[in-house]
Amino acid sequence: MMENIIAKKSPAAARVNGNSKIAEKPEKGKRLEVLKTYKIYIGGKFPRTESGRYYVAANSAGEKLANMCLSSRKDFREAVVAARTAFGDWGSRHALNRGQILYRMAEMLEGRKMQFIEELLKQDASRKLAENEANLSIDRLIYYAGWCDKFQQIFSSVNPVACSHFNFSAPEPTGVVSVIAPQNNSLIGLVSVIAPVIAGGNTCIALASYSKPLCAITFAEVLNSSDVPGGTVNILTGNPDELLPYFSNHMDVNAVVYCEKDPAGRKVIHENAALNLKRTVFYEDTNWNSKEVQSPYRIMDTQEIKTTWHPIENIGGAKAGY
Amino acid sequence: MATKRDNTLKLKFDSARKLSPAPESRSSATIRPRYDLFINGKFEPSSGKKYFDTINPATGEKLSEAAEANAADVDKAVKAARNAYEKCWKKMPAKERGKYVFRIARMVQERAREFAIVETMDGGKPIRESRDFDIPTAANHFFYYAGWADKLEYAFPNRTAKSLGVAGQIIPWNFPLLMASWKIAPALATGNTVVLKPAETTPLTAMLLAEVIQEADLPPGVVNIITGGGSTGAALVNHPDINKIAFTGSTEVGKIIQRAIAGTSKKITLELGGKAPNIIFDDAPIDQAVEGVVNGIFFNQGHVCCAGSRLYVQESVMNDVVRKLRDRIETLIVGDPMDKNTDIGAINSKQQLDKINKYIKIGLGEGYDMYQSSCVLPDRGFFLRPTIFTNVAQSSRIAQEEIFGPVLTIQSFRTDEEAIEKANNNPYGLSAGVWTDKGSKIFNMTAKLRAGVVWANTFNKFDPASPFGGYKESGYGREGGLHGLQPYVTF
């Protein structure tokens, strides 16, 4: 019986160690494995979806990996409230502090790397690719951790206005960002789109890959133990077709990030975003492992430029040679 | 001046302000009876042979008429712009491109007086303002961006900026020439070509600019200027061969435009409405602050997207501020825009005057206290007295919606926190003002106000080097400065 099941597996799945096979019964005398319940992450807590709905995440061989929350519109709205509340805190933290917290995320991810590799293996990755993806995800967090207190200097300006005023422009976070993470990718895609958003002081609600959702929820556990204030990052699992309209039409969301080339999806987002003029950020990338997808310009995609003016008094007597 | 018992001074100007009229002469400008479309370097009538009138809002008289571009004209203009882009402008060395833009800047300066007169006659703004602000700032804007043309590699670290192609640009009627310069200058400097549509009620200075562009010998098709109304604008937005839309106007139309281009690859920037908070703390220099408030809301008849239309005054100085404000607006001269003494000119159109009056009615209907100056208004044209509403509720429509006229709402606050909360409690986020003598408070406030431009102890200042644009429903993208280049390039 055992051998039959293994024989049916794809080569990648065959490398999965025993704890992935939820359907299996333990052999006599062996310990019964404790299965993980994958919940969603809202406001620093792990609730189940309020809808009580679920879907089955499976690998390419059709093996069931877990029951995932099929998040609803209400879950999204709860998450927006949490993100908006958290924005007051996260958005006004010192950049150095944000950098240290992103670094802490990388530390936590490093410590739990094996767990992510296992989950990636379950979701059809080869060991080499899984290790590479986990390593890259850690390094990407470090990359953005370093940018937290630097990109402002690159993209700011002191403006030489032709009147007696001091005038400068600097980036500020746009606010609450909804992020539909890359769908054909499990961990690195999610990290690559969340990191620049929060590095810049925004808070977000991310929708995990529908087909490969495991790492996203385990990543939420990393966030939960990394001093990231609750509500800064909220992670939902569910059906993008169902949730995409809500991610783009909510009136208290300031920007939407979307990573699919699907023109219909982009159209819906762009049209819905017009309701309150959300900023729309569309990424064309297909290879999220590539170095090309990380850049301070990605942080700027969810930043606003604020220009501040103040008069300069002209005191008599300060002549040339003063 | 008479001293009052509360030891503050009341301004009394009634004898000093009886000024003799000082009208600017119309003779320095020629307004032709009819203006055609400027396409591919030539002036030509619309293929539909239709014209619409443009009037002087100070008199209601017809000044001239402008061609109404239809979809075929728009298509022709876009084709001319595409052709000029592919065959000429894209390939031209950047420094030569820049020299053309410098040339435009210089020629606008040379003809500044003419531009100012036409701007005031067509739009109703005081001649002092078009002469001292609109036209020089427009020329400076061309001059500023001209210099960027061959320096783009310094603007975007680690990236190579490429032009987008053809930019479709739609501008409003409140600063006609200035907005044309805000649109055209960065587009040309970054190597794009342009189809620009001026506002229906103020087409004339854009057509004068077309003459300058022709005179500057800009390659045909690099800038095309087509006049018309909403349908012309819609045809431009929906044209499939446009790479970039830049729109300045109402939030309502901005949203329509965003929906219209959804699903296309057109890049877009929107500079939309505003309802700027202007906050006076009790430690502010009150007289200066009152001047700033007056400038903030009555500059250009309040037809300013970043106008300081919501005044928040700390409770302890409320009475002082309101009294000084009332005294001050009593001294404002409302009337003939061509008169060099005029402070507040004509409302841009009948339609706009109706809209403002509708809001005044709403304010009165909701029971707020209104004060208007007692000045005598001209017996023709579209004019309105400077108006303030006190004791206004935060939720009131007159405190939430953009009126775009000389109407100020006043509310009080007690703490910094309350001021921030009230100021940010609005869908717009274009600009904001803060008045206090305390530096640390300034930086607390300017950091927390959700707006793209924040003026501290000043208001309504603009400069080509200073980025301008909104947060939230005031749109996205920046115009002016280094940051104003980005909407016109791709990497």
**How far apart are the first and last residues' alpha carbons of chain A, in Å?**
94 Å
Low-confidence stretches of chain B: none
> What is the CATH superfamily label of the largest domain in chain B?
Aldehyde Dehydrogenase, Chain A, domain 1
| SSE succession of chain A | HHEEHHHHHEEEHEHEHEHEHE
- Number of domain modules of chain A: 1
Query: How many strands, what sense, and barrel or not for the largest sheet of chain A?
Result: 5 strands, parallel
Percent strand of chain A equals 15-25%
Structure description:
The complex is a heterodimer of chains A (322) and B (491). Chain A is an alpha/beta fold and 322 residues long. Chain A has a single domain, classed as 3-Layer(aba) Sandwich (Aldehyde Dehydrogenase, Chain A, domain 1), CATH 3.40.605. Chain A contains twelve helices and ten strands. In chain A, strands 7-6-5-8-9 form a five-stranded parallel β-sheet, with helices on both faces. Chain A has a three-stranded antiparallel β-sheet with strand order 3-4-10. In chain A, strands 1-2 form a two-stranded antiparallel sheet. In chain A, strand 6, helix 9 (214-224) and strand 7 form a beta-alpha-beta unit. Chain A is elongated, with a radius of gyration of 23 Å. Mean pLDDT of chain A is 91; it is low at 1-21. Chain B folds into two domains: 26-272 and 471-490, Aldehyde Dehydrogenase, Chain A, domain 1 (3-Layer(aba) Sandwich); 274-456, Aldehyde Dehydrogenase, Chain A, domain 2 (3-Layer(aba) Sandwich), CATH 3.40.309.10. Chain B contains 14 helices and 22 strands. Chain B is 36% helix and 18% strand. The relative contact order of chain B is 0.14. In chain B, helix 14 (439-448) links the parallel strand 19 and strand 20. In chain B, helix 1 (71-89) packs across helix 7, helix 2 runs antiparallel to helix 4 and helix 9 crosses helix 10 (318-330). With 491 residues, chain B is of the alpha/beta class. Chain A binds chain B through residues 92, 154, 157, 159-163, 165, 167, 169, 172, 174-175, 254, 263-264, 266-267, 269-271, 273-277, 279, 295, 297, 304-311, and chain B through 140, 157-159, 251, 254-256, 258-259, 261-263, 270, 272, 427, 442, 446-447, 450-458, 461, 463-469, 471-476, 478, 481-483, 491. Strand 10 (303-311) of chain A pairs parallel with strand 20 of chain B, so a sheet runs across the interface.
